[in-house]
Specification:
By secondary structure, the protein is α+β, with helices and mostly antiparallel strands. It has one domain: Periplasmic binding protein-like II (D-Maltodextrin-Binding Protein, domain 2). It is 19% helix and 20% strand. It has helices at 8-21, 69-78, 125-136, 149-155, 194-198; strands at residues 83-86, 89-92, 95-100, 106-111, 172-179, 182-187, 221-227, 230-235, 250-253. It has a four-stranded antiparallel beta sheet, covered by helices on one side. Strands 7-8-9 form a three-stranded antiparallel beta sheet, covered by helices on one side. A hairpin with a 2-residue loop joins strand 1 (83-86) and strand 2. The longest helix has 14 residues, at 8-21. The chain is globular, with a radius of gyration of 18 Å.
């Protein structure tokens, strides 16, 4: 099927406006996501999630290390983070709710149940932990060869790095599993912008089986094909909010 070509940067601005219009308040449940007309033959969450690329070309798209304006804009269609911006406020995305401790050092995120990644695996606490460990720990088995510059810029450093005074460079200290759908993130020092930093697309949650690929997100679109520098996206029938499944796919340049 031939989809219309679009300019990612312009369409990203439109989606940002749609997000803002959806409402929702920080720390509460929200269904505020890119609004689109639901396809008449859309399948429910948990339906067909086969995401094998329709091209022999391999798409390498790692949100934590992606560069280039169009490639970074593409992340917003394929992936989602724990939280997102709603106007000037932070609100839930993959996290249905979140709670901040009185001392400002612990952040508890309750994940939305029933969410599927594009590759068919479940979003759960283990998947979230795998992402944070990959970003934070240079020795993590899933690290790969990326520089993770967004992490260093936002949080000051990586696991094991210390200042001349012997203090941890990173304000982030680690993550633990509370239950299958709840994680706790701990900080070394108070960071009033911590939640806002987590809205950076670089910290989108990726299926642990699809790091550095383009088929492991949870967004309303999934990767379909790559031909030259043109990428084709198709609606994700298993998207967790059926009312926001796009009615058609799209094509856009990566460069």
């Amino acid at each position: 099927m031939k989809y219309p070509k679009v300019l990612f940067l312009n369409l990203l601005a439109v989606i940002a406006l749609l997000l803002a219009a959806c409402g929702g308040s920080a720390g509460t449940e929200t269904d505020a996501i890119p609004q689109a007309t639901a396809s008449g033959d859309s399948e429910p969450v948990g339906g067909d999630t086969d995401s094998a690329p329709a091209s022999s070309d391999a798409l390498v798209l790692d949100p934590a290390n992606t560069t280039g304006d169009n490639a970074q804009a593409l992340v917003g269609y394929l992936y989602e983070g724990l939280v997102r911006m709603d106007g000037d406020n932070v609100t839930g995305a993959l996290a249905e709710t979140y709670t901040v401790s009185e001392d400002g050092l612990d952040y508890i995120f309750d994940l939305r149940p029933g969410i599927k990644f594009h590759d068919g695996t479940d979003l759960n606490a283990d998947a979230v932990i795998a992402n944070f460990n990959r970003w934070f720990d240079p020795e993590d088995a899933n690290r790969g060869s990326g520089e993770f510059a967004a992490w260093a810029s936002n949080f000051g450093g990586f696991k094991g790095e210390v200042t001349e005074d012997g203090l941890a460079k990173s304000a982030y200290d680690g993550i633990e599993k509370v239950n299958d759908f709840t994680v706790l993130l701990h900080l070394n020092t108070i960071d009033p912008d911590f939640l806002k930093k987590l809205t950076d697309p670089a910290f989108s949650i990726v299926s642990p089986g699809a790091f550095e690929r383009g088929d492991g997100g949870t967004g309303p679109y999934r990767f379909s094909a790559l031909s030259g520098s043109t990428v084709t996206l198709e609606p994700f029938a298993g998207y967790w909010n059926p009312a926001a499944i796009p009615s058609e796919g799209m094509e856009a340049p990566l460069e």
